[in-house]
């Protein structure tokens, strides 16, 4: 699945950039493709994460929560790359604000991934330590994990509203294209 997503993104970008000038329909196609990449896989991850019944669903992309997150991260990078071609690097008005927010969300996502991986790594280390019967080191590690978990919580409380704001600007941008 990952390879297919990468290929679709690269072929679409290469085809459009191969033309001397991007046509209106090519631009619109890239806009929808990038938006689909960013939000469809994020939705799949969120549903899997938040609804227990869907944790192992075969109907969502990725076979597990871990794979769904990997797909979200991949499409969270490919989608914005497609959108950057869609914008022709011209950042004006509402569309420009939306693209700017998109870049902020991507940077925030990269930061979140770093914290997320740190928490998972510390959890694995603590488990190993516990299994080996260690107690003193375990207490120190537990404090460290709590700090990182709380940092992850604070990161989420910034990242999710930022994404919501970004999503609103995308909807407004699409509406403005059709109504004005
Ligand atoms: C435009 C692109 C992106 C959007 C709109 C976006 C949005 C979101 C949102 C709303 C969540 C919370 C999901 C939930 O809790 O239900 C999330 C989770 C996450 N995102 Fe992104 N993200 C994007 C790109 C990225 C990138 C590029 C990375 C990493 C390189 C990334 C890494 C993560 C990680 C690690 C989580 C999991 C946090 C957790 O579940 O605790 N995101 N993203």
Instruction: Catalogue the unreliable spans.
Output: none
Order of helices and strands: HHHHH
> How much beta, percentage-wise?
under 5%
Query: Quick one: biggest sheet?
Result: none
- pLDDT average, as an integer? 90
- The number of strands is 0
Q: Find the structural class using helix and strand composition.
A: mainly alpha
Question: Which quaternary structure do these chains form?
Answer: single chain
Overall shape: it is elongated
Number of helices: 5
Terminal Cα separation, in Å? 38 Å
Specify the helix fraction band: over 70%
Global Rg: 20 Å
Provide the domain count.
2
Catalogue the ligands.
Answer: protoporphyrin IX containing FE
Summarize this, please?
It is built from five helices and no strands. It has about 180 residues and is an all-alpha fold.
Descriptive tags:
mainly alpha; 180 residues; 2 domains; binds protoporphyrin IX containing FE
Please describe what this structure looks like.
- The protein folds into two domains: 1-89; 90-180.
- It is mainly α and 180 residues long.
- Helix content is 83%, strand content 0%.
């Amino acid at each position: 699945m990952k390879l297919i997503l990468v290929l679709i993104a690269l072929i679409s970008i290469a085809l459009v950039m191969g033309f001397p000038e991007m046509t209106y329909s090519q631009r619109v196609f890239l806009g929808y493709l990038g938006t689909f990449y960013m939000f469809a896989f994020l939705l799949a991850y969120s549903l899997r994460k938040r609804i227990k019944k869907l944790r192992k669903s075969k109907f969502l992309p990725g076979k597990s929560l871990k794979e769904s997150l990997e797909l979200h991260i991949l499409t969270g990078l490919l989608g914005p790359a497609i959108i950057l071609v869609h914008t022709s690097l011209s950042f004006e008005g509402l569309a420009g604000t939306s693209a700017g927010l998109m870049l902020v969300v991507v940077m925030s996502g990269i930061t979140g991934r770093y914290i997320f991986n740190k928490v998972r790594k510390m959890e694995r280390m603590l488990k190993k330590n516990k299994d080996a019967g260690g107690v003193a080191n375990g207490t120190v590690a537990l404090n460290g994990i709590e700090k990182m978990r709380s940092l992850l919580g604070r990161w989420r409380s910034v990242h999710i509203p930022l994404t919501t704001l970004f999503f609103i600007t995308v909807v407004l941008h699409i509406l403005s294209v059709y109504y004005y």
